[in-house]
Write a structure and sequence with these properties.
The protein has about 625 residues and is an all-alpha fold. Among the domains are: about 225-310; about 485-630, Serine Threonine Protein Phosphatase 5, Tetratricopeptide repeat (Alpha Horseshoe), CATH 1.25.40. The chain has 33 helices and two strands. The protein has helices at about 40-60, 60-75, 80-90, 95-100, 110-120, 125-135, 145-155, 160-175, 180-190, 195-205, 210-220, 225-240, 245-260, 260-275, 280-290, 295-305, 310-325, 325-340, 345-360, 360-375, 380-395, 395-405, 410-425, 430-440, 450-460, 465-480, 485-495, 500-510, 515-530, 535-545, 550-565, 565-580, 605-620; strands spanning about 590-595, 595-600. The chain has a two-stranded antiparallel sheet. Helix 3 packs antiparallel against helix 4, helix 18 (about 325-340) runs antiparallel to helix 19 (about 345-360) and helix 21 runs antiparallel to helix 22. It is elongated.
């Protein structure tokens, strides 16, 4: 929060101008008092002024503008309000700020022009707030041009307090019915998480237009209220408004979040029916929606149909493949992107790192790490977090720790990724230590649900039952988090591995929600080790209801009965599996050689690999290895 202990005069905050590159703004020209000149001289002066202002409108570079400004100063033509908009168009902040600071009594127009430049061109949002309050301190009233720029600054700074104060001024000055002001207020409240206030502004608009609807739908979508976005879209259509490109993009985002491929398909049909251009903005939204809904064939169809593909389009398709476990396709498309001359950006790298992590493509991941460093992306919080995750999942924990420690900023996802990595590699004490460090060092990055899943998993890997209990209790007592299915699953797994099957089963029965297949699977595995029949039968019954097509449930339960010499029950599970048409999914492996991935399935007739496996098996036998046939 910005604290305005005093209204600092904005001129002192603006930088000075280099005299080598800027004409003198305060020369000593001849003083012309227009009212004291004869009519002929007055006409000449006005003619010269008109010519210079005409040239000013037509100038195409900052160099030309400076030359015209010099002539204006020489001839005592003081027209800063004509100069300021051009300086903003040329994005020369030092020049514009110096010119503005030397206006003796700037009017509302000059303030609005500078506010526009600060918010939309130079993105200097704190200065925008300073300038707004300076304007009010001079007795100038903000108008319908001022308020939208104020609200842009507020939402970019998450300054809801100043946004509310601006809203109050809007009401007092009578601009509450102005469309642009209302739209900017809706966006400001939405981006600050105040969707109730945003909706109140929307509901009070006397005459809504398409922009009003779009602002509210977009606000819902961006803040994760996808169902509300889709619902409001329905109201918009019922009110007789036809959706435009902005509407459709927002709705497609909501469809992706909800997995509503039906409505997403309706949007695509609408685009075709209305012959809307499938540009990057709309095309990428369609690809992203189909990708989130798992319909990669439709996503690729849209991608291939687009005549012009920019980086956003390629990223949408690569991300879709990566998020749906189609890492091979993502890598092939990544090569195509480079061949097409499209330069990868941070979003591309995050998607590719996710793909590498999924299949253990360490060499490709290292290449991306090098590429990120060469382009100064390695400290980007999203790229660095994806690197931590990739290295950890590819088995290179040292590199994961290197990237993590080198990060100047870390968010919850970063800490969670590193804690999970340590847990996954069986380094439970280090994972717990990093968790404790997070609670002290992370500042605003507080432990969340995922953090506790990671640290509880660490306890599971090394059997730290008491520490797991302590952390489980810590969730609610110190952090106000309610344990979810995932946390109960970790605790059930922890107790099960320690042989406390009945304790684990009691915990499962106390869960606020029905146990999932992960929790029950962990318990079933524990029953297998302990040979616990009564719990096994209850767990198997639940598992077969949840996952009737999972071959593992039938096989494990059959092996448990076999180990207890309950031959009829063992055979019954095998018969039931066959009767339901359940088959065991063949194993799959990848081998990476020189950044090329090769995929193999169990049962593939590959003579050379079979020969190598036979030799390895003979070596294992010589070392005294005996296979566990009960696991088959």
């Amino acid at each position: 929060m910005l604290v305005f202990t005093s209204l600092v005069f904005i001129y002192s905050s603006l930088p000075s101008v280099d005299s080598k590159h800027t004409p003198m703004l305060k020369p000593k020209p001849r003083q012309l008092a227009l009212q004291n000149l004869n009519p002929h001289t007055q006409n000449q002066f006005l003619s010269h002024t008109g010519k210079l202002l005409h040239l000013l409108k037509q100038c195409l570079s900052i160099k030309e503008l400076k030359q015209i400004h010099t002539q204006m100063l020489i001839n005592s033509i003081h027209k800063p309000n004509f100069l300021l908009p051009k300086l903003i168009d040329f994005q020369d902040f030092p020049y514009a700020s110096t010119l503005f600071s030397q206006i003796p009594e700037p009017n509302s127009y000059a303030f609005n022009v500078m506010l526009r430049g600060l918010t939309t061109t130079w993105h200097k949002y704190p200065l925008s707030l300073h300038l707004y309050y300076r304007m009010k301190s001079l007795g100038l009233s903000p108008d319908n041009f001022t308020f939208p720029f104020l609200f842009i600054a507020c939402w970019n700074l998450s300054e809801i307090r100043h946004g509310r104060a601006g809203h109050s001024s809007v009401v007092k000055t009578g601009f509450g019915s102005d469309g642009h002001v209302c739209h900017s207020m809706i966006t400001m409240y939405s981006m600050c998480g105040e969707l109730g206030c945003a909706r109140k502004v929307f509901d009070e608009i006397p005459q809504r237009d398409s922009v009003s609807w779009n602002s509210m739908i977009s606000g819902y979508g961006k803040m994760g209220r996808a169902q509300d976005a889709v619902g409001l879209f329905g109201e918009m259509r019922e009110a007789g408004f036809e959706p435009n490109e902005m509407t459709l993009v927002s709705v497609l985002g909501a469809c992706g979040d909800l997995g509503d491929v039906g409505l997403g398909q309706w949007v695509e049909d609408f685009v075709v029916e209305k012959k809307l251009e499938l540009n990057s903005y709309l095309g990428s939204a369609l690809i992203g929606m189909f990708g989130k809904c798992g319909d990669l064939c439709s996503a690729r169809r849209v991608f291939d149909s687009m005549k012009k593909k920019d980086r956003v389009t390629w990223n949408a398709m690569i991300t879709g493949y990566a998020q749906n476990g189609m890492s091979d396709e993502a890598m092939v498309l990544f090569d195509g992107m480079k061949e097409a001359g499209v330069i990868p950006d941070k979003i591309t790298l995050v998607g590719m790192l996710s793909a590498c992590a999924a299949i253990g493509a360490l060499d490709m991941g290292k290449w991306i790490d090098k590429y990120a460093s060469e382009r100064d992306f390695q400290h980007d919080i999203y790229v660095a977090t994806a690197l931590v995750d990739m290295y950890a999942k590819c088995g290179s924990l040292a590199n994961a720790l290197r990237v993590f420690e080198d990060m100047p900023q870390k968010n919850e996802v970063t800490w969670n990724a590193m804690i999970s990595a340590l847990a996954f590699h069986g380094r439970a004490c280090e994972a717990i230590s990093l968790f404790e460090r997070m609670t002290v060092e992370a500042g605003t990055a507080r432990p969340n649900d995922i953090t506790f899943v990671a640290v509880l998993s660490a306890c599971v890997h090394v059997g730290l039952v008491d520490e797991g209990r302590r952390l489980f209790d810590l969730m609610s007592s110190s952090f106000g988090l309610i344990p979810k299915v995932e946390h109960y699953s970790c605790m059930a797994d922890l107790l099960s591995r320690a042989g406390r099957v009945h304790e684990a089963w009691d915990l499962v029965k106390k869960m606020p929600e029905k146990p999932d297949e992960v929790t029950l699977g962990a318990l079933l595995s524990a029953c297998r080790k302990c040979g616990n029949v009564d719990v096994t039968e209850q767990v198997v019954q639940l598992l077969l209801e949840l996952e009737p097509s999972n071959s593992g449930n039938y096989i494990i339960s059959s092996n448990i009965y076999k180990g207890l010499k309950m031959w009829d029950d063992s055979a019954r599970m095998r018969v039931l599996m066959k009767k339901r048409g359940v088959s065991k999914t063949p194993g799959c492996s990848w081998i990476e050689t020189e950044i090329q991935l090769h995929e193999f399935h169990a049962g593939d007739n590959l003579v050379e690999i079979s020969h190598v496996l036979k030799v390895l098996y003979e070596d294992l036998k010589d070392e005294g290895y005996t296979p566990n046939i009960n696991a088959l």
